[in-house]
Design brief:
The complex is a heterodimer of chains A (203) and B (520).
Chain A (H helix, E strand, L loop, with lengths): L1 H26 L2 E2 L4 E3 L9 E8 L2 E8 L9 E9 L10 E7 L2 H4 L7 E6 L6 E5 L5 E11 L2 E11 L6 H37 L1
Parallel strand pairs in A: 1-10
Antiparallel strand pairs in A: 2-3, 3-4, 4-5, 5-8, 6-7, 6-9, 9-10
Chain B lengths: L4 E2 L5 E3 L4 H20 L10 E3 L6 H10 L1 H24 L8 H21 L2 H5 L1 H11 L24 H17 L5 H21 L4 H6 L1 H9 L5 E5 L2 H6 L4 H4 L27 H5 L5 E6 L3 H4 L6 H20 L2 H14 L6 H30 L6 H8 L3 H20 L3 H6 L11 H9 L5 H30 L4 H27 L2 E2 L3
Antiparallel strand pairs in B: 1-2, 2-6, 3-5, 4-5
Helix pairs in contact in B: 1-22, 1-23, 3-4, 3-6, 3-8, 4-8, 4-19, 6-8, 7-10, 7-15, 7-17, 15-17, 15-18, 15-19, 16-17, 17-18, 17-23, 19-22, 19-23, 22-23
Classes of the chains: A alpha+beta (203), B mainly alpha (520).
Chain lengths: 203, 520
């Protein structure tokens, strides 16, 4: 049994090493930071959606104003790209695009990707304005090139209220299908039992 | 006194346990270890118990309550209502986690308070569990009476799933979602998780016999089940002789009006709380009213010679690994550490790969050291009749009090310092029109503790000592069972596991001495 434990430990360590070895291929230069909501009490800045992370050689900080964008209301993205080694701000150009992140998009029926704009730094900040005509889940992508390498920063953005019936509808649907299926199978079982009973009665 | 402060990275942190208390616990650990080694024959499993139904007045009230299903139904109704509120708040409320009832009630109150509830009430949570209640109502189409046999397919759970491995993997998955993906700060995903639990419980109940979800799959239920081995309450026969003579086994098979035990337990043979879901079916179905709640020593069950299965032993070790991991992820230095590691391996963004590697390591390290201690014990026992697997399972109970004590202490800290502001969230569960919490409000909220800092520190230190004391009791008793009547050999065989328990208590103590990052 000690061998078995050794095998299990070896398997866990292998997974660990595999994760370490493959992580570079999986996630390099692709950012999906965890958003948080910040309130700057010391200024008149409105609440913002903020993510801090890094990508390759750069620290990334992006903020979305307002924190809860709504359709038809103008908003803005502020993107800060700073070299991790020397603290200098990136001075190239950043291209902002937007794509659909809805269920339909996952199934290949989403709206095509659109370009929001190409921005140069304005006092070390890349500012990109936006206005959404429709609410929904979107992915904003910022792309730039540095040291001959492409960098892609994705961040999710919800515009407007979340879908009223999406997850709830799916839950109710799944439960309904399962319960209906069980009910049908049980009725068939009862019917089959009755027929079998009748046959056995005749014999 | 050190108060809450902003961490280096701008995050709000709680102060750690004062060093004096840390030193006191350390001295207790050393003294207890020395005592256990010096007197290996001293210390027996406390077997005494006290039936609550025998208490004048209270006993009558308890008998009245446990005999009436509608009382439990009303309790379930309350918890289902809160659960539905959480789902509604998560789906339709503000995404600001500290203002939304979904995240505050789920992660700040329930997830922190659940472990504390086990300390007093055992597996009572499972008795009122909302996703199981909803699943039962939907599938059985009964509020409390016995379900129609045709309401479920009643399939037998496949043999390869008849263990706690599914619950173990789900628990690891839940931790990954909680700490890695950050479900705790996302009301919408919290609601999705709640809905997923309802779906899984319902599908399982509709397909499999009895409550297979509670028995094999539910990560919360199994955690509650294992920890409730250390609870001071249990549902047991009042008179074991009545159960010994019983031939009808209503507790197992149910009666005309009461459902059978959802986890296939026979009360007359029950020795562990692990799979009891406190549903009360046995108390209502027993024709002799022979099942009742009773008080006992929290050490009674873990110290007795029960034989856990291989999968159960692993679950207890995973509990030990994950509780420590929770503590690690809430250290202010965790983020710097994980960022450093991520940079080395080229991970970025949410650092999920780095996080997963850390999670895997947190599971592998306790398992490795425990395996090493068991291997050394086996060598010291020198009896070929005891396989590594049987010893591994036999001593896994050592991990349970260590994990439970740290889990209690850690959650007590969260609950005491982050429990304030609950009223505001309940008054506006969807957080309509609210703004994110500012630094000043966070500071005020953390200082508004329901117990004093000193009392909290004392409680935390006592609980750590309590965990280690029970672990030592488990080691003593189980080692004595291996090498009977040979104190010298008992002393020797205890050493590796005693070292294991002391090292992990030391690690947990070190975690407690560090400042801890606020959850929301």
């Amino acid at each position: 049994m000690a061998h078995k434990l050794a095998h299990i430990s070896a398997a866990l360590l292998t997974i660990l090493l595999w994760l370490i070895a493959t992580s570079g291929q999986v996630a390099a230069h692709h950012v999906l930071g965890r958003p948080s909501y910040a309130l700057n009490e010391d200024s008149n800045t409105p609440p913002a959606l903020q993510v801090e992370t890094w990508i390759g050689d750069f620290d990334i900080n992006y903020m979305v104003f307002p924190a809860f964008p709504r359709p038809g209301v103008p908003g803005r993205i502020n993107l800060y790209v700073t070299d991790r080694e020397d603290g200098r701000h990136f001075e190239g150009r950043v291209r902002f695009t937007i794509r659909d992140d809805s269920w339909a998009a996952w199934l290949g029926f989403g709206r095509p990707e659109e370009t929001l704009g190409v921005q140069s730094p304005d006092d070390v900040v890349f500012r990109q304005g936006f206005i959404f005509s429709e609410g929904g889940d979107y992915i904003i992508t910022a792309r730039f090139e540095a040291n001959d390498e492409p960098y892609v920063i994705d961040f999710p953005l919800r515009v407007g209220a979340p879908p009223a019936l999406g997850p709830l509808g799916i839950t109710i649907g799944v439960i309904f299908v399962v319960l209906a299926g069980v009910s049908i199978i049980q009725r068939r079982r009862v019917l089959t039992g009755k027929i079998r009973g009748a046959h056995e009665g005749r014999e | 006194m050190e108060m809450e402060a902003m961490g280096a990275a701008g995050v709000m942190v709680h102060p750690g346990l004062p060093q004096a208390w840390g030193l006191a616990v350390l001295l207790f650990v050393l003294a207890t270890s020395a005592w256990a080694l010096a007197l290996p024959g001293v210390g027996t499993a406390p077997t005494g118990h006290f039936s609550l139904s025998a208490v004048p007045g209270i006993g009558h009230v308890m008998r009245y309550f446990i005999a009436r299903p509608w009382i439990l139904f009303l309790l379930r109704l309350v918890f289902v209502a809160i659960f539905l509120l959480i789902i509604a708040a998560g789906l339709y409320g503000t995404p600001i986690p500290e203002r939304n009832a979904a995240t505050v009630l789920t992660w700040n109150l329930w997830w922190s308070g659940l472990v504390l509830s086990i300390f007093f009430l055992g597996s009572a949570w499972c008795g009122v569990c909302p996703w199981n209640s909803i699943a039962n109502w939907l599938v059985n189409r009964r509020l409390w009476r016995r379900a129609d046999a045709s309401s479920s397919l009643n399939l037998t759970v496949p043999k390869w799933l008849r263990n706690v491995w599914p619950a173990l993997f789900m628990f690891v998955g839940l931790t990954w979602l909680e700490l890695g993906v950050g479900v705790t700060v996302d009301p919408f995903v919290t609601a999705i998780l709640a809905l997923a639990m309802v779906v899984m419980a319902t599908v399982s109940l509709a397909v499999f016999q009895r409550n297979a979800f509670c028995h094999h799959f539910c990560p919360v239920g199994r955690t509650v089940g294992f920890y409730s081995q250390l609870a001071p309450v249990e549902l047991r026969p009042v008179d074991p002789d009545i159960c010994a003579r019983c031939t009808t086994l209503e507790c197992y098979a149910g009666s005309a009006t009461v459902d059978p035990c959802p986890t296939h337990l026979v009360m007359g043979r029950l020795t562990q709380n692990t799979y009891c879901t406190s549903c009360g079916n046995c108390t209502r179905s027993c024709p002799d009213a022979n099942i009742a709640w009773r008080l006992r020593s929290p050490a009674a069950e873990a110290m007795q010679d029960a034989r856990p299965h291989w999968d159960e032993a692993w679950f207890m070790l995973v509990l030990l690994g994950l509780t420590g991991f929770h503590g690690l992820t809430m250290l202010p230095s965790w983020e710097d550490g994980i960022i450093g590691l991520a940079r080395v391996i080229g991970d970025s963004g949410r650092m999920l790969v780095t996080f997963s590697a850390g999670l895997a390591a947190s599971l592998a390290v306790p398992a490795f050291f425990y395996g090493l201690a068991v291997w050394a014990t086996r060598k010291l026992v020198g009896d070929a009749n005891h396989s590594f697997k049987s010893l591994f399972s036999r001593f896994a109970f050592v991990a349970l009090p260590l994990a439970f004590a740290y889990h209690l202490v850690h959650n007590l800290g969260h609950l005491a310092r982050e429990g304030a502001g609950l009223g505001a969230v309940l008054a506006n569960p969807l957080g309509v029109g609210t703004l994110p919490m500012g630094a000043a409000e966070r500071q005020l909220r953390m200082m508004d503790m329901f117990i004093s800092q000193d009392a909290l520190s004392a409680l935390q230190a006592l609980l750590m000592a309590f965990g280690f004391l029970i672990a030592v009791g488990v080691i003593q008793r189980r080692c004595r069972g291996l090498v009977k009547l040979q104190p010298g050999r008992v002393r020797l065989t205890m050493l590796p596991l005693l070292l294991f328990a002391a090292v992990f208590t030391g690690f947990h103590l070190w975690l407690l001495l560090q400042p801890m990052v606020m959850r929301l």
